């Protein structure tokens, strides 16, 4: 009886991690379609002054991916530079706290933004969860909480628009700590918040695109095209925010007055119209009642007339106003001083 021996050769293939998965934006099908999106939003973005702050850098390079594939400071800069390019192409005027791997203090970042005269401040970061390799999400941060003196709704408005389009572009969720992915910086530093948001002199947000402490996300962050997608999400969110309009407030009445209960006049410009229920007016931190406020609607603007229900003593007084348009966007911080003077002979 013959015996047959069959030699079976087994080839062992070393296991390897799956290829990072991401989806190109649908409007990137061709270079022309991508340009058409930028051209569409240029009518809303053109002329706006945007300050972009790539976080960390220079001597601050300690935040490194879980597999050491990326350094946060470098990814922040790459995303910021792509965002700059998109905004510039759309006609925005862009300033940056750094354009290379240099050290910039928090104080200098705020100072540069203030001196630039920028309208909006955007700080670009990527997040970390030491000891937790599973967590990742996108989050966009604003300063303070409603009811706190440091809170202004325009910051949260910008955060909402950026967060929505960023999370969609990256195909990830927001944090479970928030229904819409926007977060108050008081969650990290109660009653203080982030330095750059607390001290910004213009509406400001801080974006944490995703986590470099998650291996899957770190792999994606190491891919240049993915960094472009991150910037694209931020760009489209900001562009849609500007498309929805920002009410512009002007004090058109005199600022030197002689009566203790003067009637002051504001002009609010916005193409979508003024949400009359949103009007909040304070003089010296005292709220003007709704029944002391009147409005007149004109095409593309409204006139607001109001008279305090209390006497104003001679001297300087501070006026604070917040309104929203019919798209839900709040006006930028508006504060003006006016003066009550005694009439000659009084």
From TrEMBL:
The record places domain MurNAc-LAA at 110-239
Q: Which GO terms describe its cellular component?
A: outer membrane-bounded periplasmic space
User: Which Pfam family, an example, fits this chain?
Assistant: Amidase_3
* Coiled-coil ranges (or none): none
Enumerate the UniProt keywords alphabetically. Answer: Hydrolase
Catalytic reactions on record? Hydrolyzes the link between N-acetylmuramoyl residues and L-amino acid residues in certain cell-wall glycopeptides
Molecular-function annotations in GO = N-acetylmuramoyl-L-alanine amidase activity
Q: EC no.? A: 3.5.1.28
What name is this protein filed under? N-acetylmuramoyl-L-alanine amidase
Q: What is the lineage of its organism?
A: Bacteria, Pseudomonadati, Candidatus Kryptoniota, Candidatus Chryseopegocella
